[in-house]
Structures are given as C-alpha cells and as structure tokens.
Amino acid sequence: MNTINTTFETRFDLFFKKFTNLLMIDGKKIKASKILFNTLLILKKRIKKDLEKKNQKEISFQIDKFGTNFTLLRLIAQALENITPSLEVRKVRVAGSTYLVPAVISKKKQETLALKWLLESAKKRQKSSKGDFSHCLADEILDASRKLGQARQKRDELHRLAQMNRAYVRYRWW
C-alpha cells in the first residue's frame, strides 16, 4: 500500500512539474505555478460544492476517508485519460503522392499532447469569455473529465482521421 501511494504521488508530482513548465511563458515559472495552484483551488471548491449538492452517504464517506485532494487528483487523472490520444497521423510522401499514415505514439508524447491541447482549449475559452485563465482551465478540466470540451473534440477528430486513413498503414516504416 505504501509503495502504491509513493508511486501515485511521484506520478502526479511529475505531472504538476510538466504542466507548470508547459504553462510557463517567458521563463515566469512562479506565475505559472500560481495559475496552476489557483486552478486546483477552484476545482477543489467546485468538487466540494458538487458533493454537498448530491449529499449522498456514499460520497460523504469517500470524502471522510480519502479527502477532497484524492477526489481532485482522480478528477484530473480522469480528465487526462479522456483527452489523451493513442494515435497520430503523419504525412508520408510515396511516389509523388502524400498520404496521411496513422501511427501509435509513445506514452510520453500522449501525455504531452493531452496537456498542450488542454492549455490550448483553455486559452481559446479565455479569449471568448474574457475571464480569468485559472477559471477557464478549471472549466476545461471539468469538461474533459466529463468527455466534453474542445480538447476532447480535438482527440476525437484525430482518431477519426486516423480511422479514415487506416488503409495507408502499410506505408509506415518507422
């Protein structure tokens, strides 16, 4: 049990470092950390509010036993799992024609793409709503955990494109 918790904590520690580095602009890491921290606080408040609304014994037991931090981490893990792509499409030129060839991508690249898409969709949401970036990022994480939002649409679009071009898998040589 203890090794599972340390592995779980290590995994999320690496996630937060990577997310902070992707969020950072012009080397302002402290500002990126504050944005991420504010996003986590917003998510935590929304989780508490949702759980109070539901007012179920099962959920309240879960909060008492594990705390809202565990629920928050599970929400983030679910959101990332929902927007993580498993395939990519690469352009390959064969005999003067260019084909879109689907290929499996590594776990590290999957996570990086998911985080980049999450940030990109939060930036688009901020431009349209003129709100605080932390709130937009929290909204996008919640949408991703429910299999909604722009990041999920981007993943589905990529998978649909790979599905349509599956006949060209034979041109893959890497």
From TrEMBL:
One GO BP annotation of this record: translation
What SUPFAM superfamilies does the annotation carry? Ribosomal protein S7
Question: What Pfam families does UniProt report for this protein, alphabetically?
Answer: Ribosomal_S7
Which Gene3D superfamilies does the record match to this protein? Ribosomal protein S7 domain
Q: Do the record's keywords include Ribosomal protein?
A: yes
Checking InterPro entries in the record gives: Ribosomal_uS7, Ribosomal_uS7_dom, Ribosomal_uS7_dom_sf
Any one cellular component term from GO for this entry? ribonucleoprotein complex
Q: Which domain of life is it from?
A: Eukaryota
Domain (Small ribosomal subunit protein uS7) ranges? 15-166
Q: Which family does it belong to?
A: Belongs to the universal ribosomal protein uS7 family.
> What name does UniProt use for this protein?
30S ribosomal protein S7
Species name:
Chlorella heliozoae
Q: Which lineage?
A: Eukaryota, Viridiplantae, Chlorophyta, core chlorophytes, Trebouxiophyceae
